[in-house]
Write a structure and sequence with these properties.
Blueprint (H helix, E strand, L loop, with lengths): L3 E5 L8 E6 L4 H10 L4 E2 L15 E4 L6 E5 L4 E5 L4 H8 L4 E3 L10 H6 L7 H4 L6 E7 L5 E5 L4 H7 L8 E11 L4 E9 L2 H10 L4 E6 L11 E8 L14 E2 L11 H13 L6 E6 H5 L5 E2 L10 E8 L1 H18 L6 E6 L13 E9 L4 H14 L3 E2 L12 H4 L3 H11 L8 H5 L7
Helix pairs in contact: 9-10
Protein name: FAD-binding protein
Pfam family, one: FAD_binding_4
GO molecular function: FAD binding; oxidoreductase activity, acting on the CH-OH group of donors, oxygen as acceptor
Length: 442
């Protein structure tokens, strides 16, 4: 297998790295690579920052290792290679009445990436995070050998791998529990919400299986925090089965800077808010359209231009969320750097692994164009998060101050001890792990 040198970047296109990458097509080839030249894994590069990058080093890209190895319909357990995507699994198994139990906002995420970042979805309040539905992991360690880890076997290694950003080894394959999928269509109720306080109240009181909110970050004054709440359940199954999506479109070029100017964002957001009737509305949407609304617009990250964007995503404890979110929204709107992509959700019970992001509270995710003023704004938002007792999502991060990490992740020392034992020579270090000093060696 030849290593090919190239420049790679995360989805935010703000952290380019030159590196050597191999793309094995069979597990036997992966095993040979790891025995000869152990290197960190890289999935579909849908993390927004530098999680899958290894500047001036090597990485093994797993996207061609995408086989669905076996499935037990009685238990719902799927044995799958690490490079298979969430969307691939949904497409194959939804017509059979099954689906991934937890799905992030993009179906292009790989199973290895979903485990390594313990992704969450619109149903975290009821289903938890992705890691809670992982039965076992085939993990290739620093010595080049593969072993199966689970809650019953090598529990410490297993838990450190859940949300561990690839620092414990390369995920070869995994067994995951799928959930029932009674229909190919979601019935979505949409309603306007006039401000932050009622938004938090509605999210807290929602009993829908799937819930997500869109925030208008161009609104100020009494409209600060207004947006659209979506609550969804499976629509009744029909004889037509699963709706087919129209073919996706591709953004053909990097958008000019003015495309995300304050007047244009304000106009778009006002239209998006007022498209919902005052009394609310209900509509049916195909599964992939509801769960992955941006996936049909390929390369949508090019809307942010050549300099890309940074994403800020935090989770805040319930007791401090309202006041902190108010301050955050004021800071973002005043900066003029907000984009139309801003999401507010309620998260349920806590993390599966020591570096898993979810904790009970509210999570805000905002895409911010990478321009003058962006880094000071990001730093301010990160510090507000820390002061409120919250944490930053490492899969989305590209610029967090490493000094803030230990307070955000109180189990960091336990993680460091496990990783030090598993990979004492730092073979699986990445740009993210070095930047944030995840291993405590800096």
């Amino acid at each position: 297998m030849l290593w090919k040198t190239g420049t790679f970047d995360g989805w935010g296109r703000s952290t380019p790295a030159q590196m050597d990458v191999a793309r094995p097509e069979k597990l036997a080839t992966l095993d040979g690579l790891m025995a000869d030249t152990p290197a960190p894994a890289q999935g579909n590069l849908r993390s927004y920052g530098d999680a899958g990058l290894n500047s001036d080093g090597k990485a093994i890209r797993t996207v061609r290792l995408d086989r669905l190895r076996s499935f037990d319909a009685q238990s719902g357990v799927l044995d799958v290679e690490a490079g298979a995507t969430i969307s691939q699994i949904l497409s194959v198994f939804a017509p059979q009445g099954f689906m991934p139990a937890v799905m992030p906002g993009t179906g292009f995420a790989t199973i290895g990436g979903a485990i390594a970042h313990d992704v969450h979805g619109k149903n975290h309040h009821s289903a938890g995070s992705f890691a809670e539905h992982v039965e076992s992991i085939d993990l290739i360690g620093a010595d080049g050998t593969c072993r199966t880890v689970s809650r019953q076997t090598e529990a410490g290694t297993f838990h450190a791998t859940l949300g561990g950003a690839g620092q414990t080894g390369v995920i070869r394959s995994a067994k995951i529990r799928l959930a029932p999928c009674p229909s190919g269509t979601m019935r979505v109720t949409e309603r306007r919400v006039d401000g932050l306080e009622p938004f938090l109240t509605l999210l807290d009181g929602s009993r829908a299986s799937f819930t997500v909110g869109w925030i208008d970050l161009a609104a100020t004054g009494s409209g600060l925090g207004r947006g659209v709440l979506e609550e969804a359940e499976f629509a009744p199954a029909t004889a037509d089965g699963h709706d087919r999506l129209k073919p996706g479109r591709t953004v053909p070029f990097d958008a000019p800077r003015f495309a995300l100017s304050r007047p244009i964002v304000r106009t778009f957001n006002a239209f998006y808010f007022h498209r919902i009737r005052e009394t609310g509305q209900e509509r049916d949407r195909p599964l992939q359209d509801f769960f992955f609304p941006l996936d049909r617009l390929h390369d949508w990250n090019r809307f942010y231009g050549k300099t890309g964007f940074r994403q800020f995503q935090c989770v805040l404890p319930e007791e401090s969320a309202a006041g902190t979110l108010q301050t955050m929204l004021e800071e973002i709107t005043a900066s003029g750097l907000a984009s139309p992509l801003a999401v507010l959700k309620k998260l349920g019970k806590g993390a599966a692994g020591p570096l898993s992001f979810p904790m009970p509270g509210f999570t805000l995710a905002v895409d911010i164009p990478n321009r003058d003023g962006t880094m000071p704004l990001m730093d301010r938002l990160h510090r507000l998060t820390a002061e409120a007792g919250g944490r930053i999502y490492l899969a989305k991060d590209s610029c967090l101050d490493a000094a803030l990490l230990p307070d955000m992740y109180p189990d960091l020392d336990r993680f460091r001890k496990t990783v030090s034992r598993l990979d004492p020579d730092g073979l699986f270090e990445t740009d993210l792990s070095r930047r944030l000093n995840l291993r405590g060696t800096a």
